[in-house]
C-alpha cells in the first residue's frame, strides 16, 4: 500500500510548496519591498474604511435590537460621574461652615470646627466613586461594538447575522491576519538583528550612520506592518533633531515602533536578557543607544551624565524618552518625571493618540505579559493612531525642571485631546505617598494659622 499512497504524498508536498511560495511572494511584493522604500499601496487605508462601515452597521443593529427588546443603551461616562466645581480648600470649608453654623464666619475660621471633617469625608467619597487615577490603568470603554472579544456593555445576542459576522471576524483575525503578522514580526526582528550586527562591523563614519539609519527604518516599518498599523503623522517640520530629547506620552510598548518607523532615535532603557538582550546588543553595535545595568538605573546622577554626554554630541541621534515611566490607557497624561528635563537641551514633545475602535492599545502590564499582549495586538483588527510633532521647547529662565516638565506635559495633553493629570503613574503599583496626605494637612493648617495671624495683626 505504501507505493500506492506515494503519488498522493508527492502531490501534497507539491501543493504545500506552492502555497509557501505564493505566501512569501505576496509578503515580499506587497509588504516587505514597500516597507524598504517607505511606500504604501493604500490597502491598509481601504481596509480601515471597510472596518468602519462594518462597525457602524453592527452598532446600528445593536441599537435597533435593544429598542425592540426594551433594553437600555449603555453610554460610558466620559467626563466623570461627579460634577466638581473648581474651589480651593479654604473656600469649600467656608461654604460648609456658612451652611452649618450661625456664628460669625471670620471669627470661627481661626480654629478647628467639627464641620470641617465633612470636607475631607466628601473628598474621600468622591475619590472612591470617581477615582481619576486607577481608572487610567484599565481599557477605556467603547460606545460602539468593534466585533472583538472586549466590547461594551451593550453587546448581547441580537440576531443570527450579527453572530455569524462576529464568527467570520474571528476566522479572519486568527486564521489569516495572525499568521501573517507573526511572520512579518519574525522577519522584521530577524533582519534587525542580522543587519545591525553587520553594520556594526563597519568603521565609524558617515557610511555607517547612513546604513544604520536605513536598516533601522526598514526593520521598524516591517514591524509596523506586522501590526497593520495605520499612522497619521502631523507637523513633520517639528520632528526631533540630533542633540535633542524627544518626549512622548506612553500607552504601549509599540509607541517605540510607531515613532521609530518615521525617524531614527537613540533608545534609553535597562539591559535585558534573552531575546530582548540579543536585540539590544545588536542595535547598539550599529547605533549609540543608551542601555543601563539594573544597578545603574537608580543612580540619577549617572543617568543624567550619560544623557548629557549623548546630547552634547550633535552627530548622535535624538534620545527617545517616555517620562511617565509607565503605560496609561490612552485617555490621559500623568506626571512626567523631572530627570529628562534637568538637562539643558532642546525638548521635542510628541503626542500619540490611538483609535480604540480597532484595537486595545493600552498595555496593562499587571494583567498581561509582553508576549500575551503582543499576541492580543496581532489578533486585533489594526492599530490606528495619530502622531503630532509639537514645536521644540526649552527651559525658560527661572523655571525649574518640574515646572518645565508640567509645561511640556500640558502641551502634549492639549494636542492629543488627553486629560492632564498631576498624579504619579507609579500609583499603578504603589500606595499613595505620605507626602500627598501631608500636603492636604499643610493646606488646612496654613488656613488656620493664617487666620490667627490676620487676627493678631488686626
Automatic annotation (TrEMBL):
<comment type="similarity">
    <text>Belongs to the 1-acyl-sn-glycerol-3-phosphate acyltransferase family.</text>
</comment>
<comment type="pathway">
    <text>Lipid metabolism.</text>
</comment>
<keyword id="KW-0808">Transferase</keyword>
<keyword id="KW-0443">Lipid metabolism</keyword>
<keyword id="KW-0594">Phospholipid biosynthesis</keyword>
<dbReference type="GO" id="GO:0008654">
    <property type="term" value="P:phospholipid biosynthetic process"/>
</dbReference>
<keyword id="KW-0444">Lipid biosynthesis</keyword>
<keyword id="KW-0812">Transmembrane</keyword>
<dbReference type="InterPro" id="IPR045252">
    <property type="entry name" value="LPCAT1-like"/>
</dbReference>
<keyword id="KW-0012">Acyltransferase</keyword>
<dbReference type="GO" id="GO:0016020">
    <property type="term" value="C:membrane"/>
</dbReference>
<keyword id="KW-1133">Transmembrane helix</keyword>
<feature type="transmembrane region" description="Helical">
    <location>
        <begin position="158"/>
        <end position="176"/>
    </location>
</feature>
<comment type="pathway">
    <text>Phospholipid metabolism.</text>
</comment>
<dbReference type="GO" id="GO:0019432">
    <property type="term" value="P:triglyceride biosynthetic process"/>
</dbReference>
<feature type="domain" description="Phospholipid/glycerol acyltransferase">
    <location>
        <begin position="244"/>
        <end position="355"/>
    </location>
</feature>
<feature type="transmembrane region" description="Helical">
    <location>
        <begin position="182"/>
        <end position="202"/>
    </location>
</feature>
<protein>
    <submittedName>
        <fullName>Glycerol-3-phosphate acyltransferase 4</fullName>
    </submittedName>
</protein>
<dbReference type="GO" id="GO:0005783">
    <property type="term" value="C:endoplasmic reticulum"/>
</dbReference>
<dbReference type="GO" id="GO:0004366">
    <property type="term" value="F:glycerol-3-phosphate O-acyltransferase activity"/>
</dbReference>
<dbReference type="Pfam" id="PF01553">
    <property type="entry name" value="Acyltransferase"/>
</dbReference>
<dbReference type="InterPro" id="IPR002123">
    <property type="entry name" value="Plipid/glycerol_acylTrfase"/>
</dbReference>
<keyword id="KW-0472">Membrane</keyword>
<feature type="transmembrane region" description="Helical">
    <location>
        <begin position="20"/>
        <end position="43"/>
    </location>
</feature>
<keyword id="KW-1208">Phospholipid metabolism</keyword>
Amino acid at each position: 500500500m505504501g507505493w500506492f499512497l506515494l503519488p498522493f504524498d508527492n502531490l501534497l508536498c507539491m501543493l504545500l510548496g506552492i502555497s509557501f511560495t505564493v505566501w512569501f511572494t505576496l509578503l515580499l511584493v506587497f509588504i516587505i519591498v514597500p516597507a524598504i522604500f517607505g511606500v504604501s499601496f493604500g490597502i491598509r487605508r481601504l481596509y480601515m474604511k471597510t472596518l468602519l462601515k462594518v462597525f457602524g452597521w453592527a452598532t446600528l443593529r445593536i441599537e435597533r435590537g435593544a429598542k425592540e427588546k426594551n433594553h437600555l443603551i449603555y453610554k460610558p461616562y466620559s467626563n466623570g460621574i461627579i460634577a466638581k466645581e473648581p474651589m480651593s480648600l479654604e473656600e469649600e470649608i467656608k461654604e460648609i461652615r456658612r451652611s452649618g453654623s450661625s456664628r460669625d464666619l471670620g471669627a470661627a475660621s481661626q480654629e478647628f470646627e467639627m464641620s470641617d471633617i465633612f470636607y475631607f469625608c466628601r473628598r474621600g467619597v468622591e475619590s472612591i466613586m470617581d477615582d481619576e487615577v486607577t481608572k487610567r490603568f484599565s481599557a477605556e470603554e467603547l460606545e460602539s461594538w468593534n466585533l472583538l472579544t472586549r466590547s461594551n456593555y451593550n453587546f448581547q445576542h441580537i440576531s443570527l447575522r450579527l453572530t455569524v459576522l462576529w464568527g467570520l471576524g474571528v476566522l479572519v483575525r486568527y486564521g489569516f491576519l495572525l499568521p501573517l503578522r507573526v511572520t512579518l514580526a519574525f522577519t522584521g526582528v530577524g533582519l534587525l538583528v542580522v543587519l545591525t550586527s553587520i553594520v556594526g562591523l563597519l568603521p565609524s563614519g558617515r557610511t555607517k550612520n547612513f546604513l544604520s539609519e536605513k536598516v533601522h527604518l526598514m526593520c521598524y516599518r516591517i514591524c509596523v506592518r506586522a501590526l497593520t498599523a495605520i499612522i497619521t503623522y502631523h507637523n513633520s517640520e517639528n520632528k526631533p533633531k540630533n542633540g535633542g530629547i524627544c518626549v512622548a506620552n506612553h500607552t504601549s510598548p509599540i509607541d517605540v515602533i510607531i515613532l521609530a518607523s518615521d525617524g531614527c532615535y537613540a533608545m534609553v532603557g535597562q539591559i535585558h536578557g534573552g531575546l530582548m538582550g540579543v536585540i539590544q546588543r545588536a542595535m547598539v553595535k550599529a547605533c549609540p543607544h543608551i542601555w543601563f545595568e539594573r544597578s545603574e538605573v537608580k543612580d540619577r546622577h549617572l543617568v543624567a551624565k550619560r544623557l548629557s554626554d549623548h546630547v552634547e554630541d550633535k552627530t548622535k541621534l535624538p534620545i527617545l524618552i517616555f517620562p511617565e515611566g509607565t503605560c496609561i490607557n490612552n485617555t490621559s497624561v500623568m506626571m512626567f518625571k523631572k530627570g529628562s528635563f534637568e538637562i539643558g537641551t532642546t525638548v521635542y514633545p510628541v503626542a500619540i493618540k490611538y483609535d480604540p475602535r480597532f484595537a486595545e492599545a493600552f498595555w496593562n502590564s499587571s494583567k498581561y505579559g509582553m508576549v500575551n499582549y503582543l499576541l492580543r495586538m496581532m489578533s486585533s483588527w489594526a492599530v490606528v493612531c495619530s502622531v503630532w510633532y509639537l514645536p521644540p521647547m526649552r527651559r525658560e529662565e527661572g523655571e525649574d525642571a518640574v515646572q518645565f516638565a508640567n509645561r511640556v506635559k500640558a502641551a502634549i495633553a492639549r494636542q492629543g485631546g488627553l486629560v492632564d493629570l498631576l498624579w504619579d503613574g507609579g500609583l499603578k503599583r504603589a500606595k499613595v505617598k505620605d507626602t500627598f496626605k501631608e500636603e492636604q494637612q499643610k493646606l488646612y493648617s496654613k488656613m488656620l494659622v493664617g487666620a490667627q495671624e490676620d487676627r493678631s495683626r488686626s
